Amino acid sequence: MRNTRPSFAEGKQECAAIGKAAAPCEKPGGKEGRASVGNRRIRQCWFALRHGAEVLRDLDFRLAKGGFYFLTGPSGAGKTSLLQLLYLARRPTRGRIQLFDQDLTDAPRDVLPDFRRRIGVVFQDFRLIRHLSAFDNVALPLRIAGRSDAEVEGPVREMLAWVGLADRASARPPTLSGGEQQRVAIARAVISQPELLVADEPTGNVDADMATRLLHLFTALNRLGTTIVVATHDVSLIARTPGARLMRLEKGSMADPTGILRNPPTEVRGR
Ligand SMILES: Nc1ncnc2c1ncn2[C@@H]1O[C@H](COP(=O)(O)OP(=O)(O)OP(=O)(O)O)[C@@H](O)[C@H]1O
């Protein structure tokens, strides 16, 4: 039961909402290939689009459970595509993907929603539900997990305050700025303290101060045991996250041009 984990309040001044709201559930590529995380692994994975273009090539790595990873690389390198494999929106064309100690490469479609509920996703294009308020968008994962209105109220209010949107709780996404929508999307992704958080350019639309605040949210979540994978071009985020590991994609393959980065990541310092 993840409710037994320490709460955010035990971190520095981080938001306690996630610890309070955590749902009581358990915890996730070519050639014949695999992407993996601890017990999450991608083995010799290749991914091609429907029209045949190969987007990811021969990826073979394992993400340590509880690790913090940044995924970098030029535009078009395949970062979003790799994240899509990790949050089970796509399957590898060749190779194996193992998440939450299970090989899900060929898992029946109807079992995937249960696994996806264990993953928080911050989409590059936010994907908020337009007709729901900011409050109800953030509350969604908790309600799906069966939380009552009384249980949802406090953590969602606190989370909205943490991302600077306390006064925008009843606003609908079309009336929010891009940066505000991004913060709602982040709040929704982290509110239930997922086992794996996958974020695609999560600070692309916010100012430097808010980026720092959101980074604190991610590191606090990570301290509670969530494996974090953040795709970003923002090198300052990476520099400010001690212990995080880097994965660099270039033209669909893992690259390590400097020799300093450790690719593929196989371990996490201090864990
Ligand atoms: N639906 C699609 N149809 C055609 N090509 C696509 C599609 N989605 C992605 N691609 C192509 O796949 C490649 C990888 O795209 P992807 O979005 O994964 O890259 P990225 O590293 O996330 O880029 P960015 O940093 O710009 O977001 C690119 O060449 C892109 O043009």
UniProtKB/TrEMBL annotation:
Keywords: ATP-binding, Cell cycle, Cell division, Cell membrane, Membrane, Nucleotide-binding, Transport. The keyword Glycosyltransferase does not apply. The keyword Nucleotide-binding applies. Signal peptide: none annotated. One of its GO terms (molecular function) is ATP binding. CDD domains: ABC_MJ0796_LolCDE_FtsE. Residues 40-270 form the ABC transporter domain. It is found in: Cell inner membrane; Cell membrane. GO terms for biological process: cell division. It comes from the Bacteria. It is a peripheral membrane protein. Belongs to the ABC transporter superfamily. Homodimer. Forms a membrane-associated complex with FtsX. Part of the ABC transporter FtsEX involved in cellular division. Important for assembly or stability of the septal ring. This is Cell division ATP-binding protein FtsE. It comes from Sphingomonas sediminicola. The gene is ftsE.
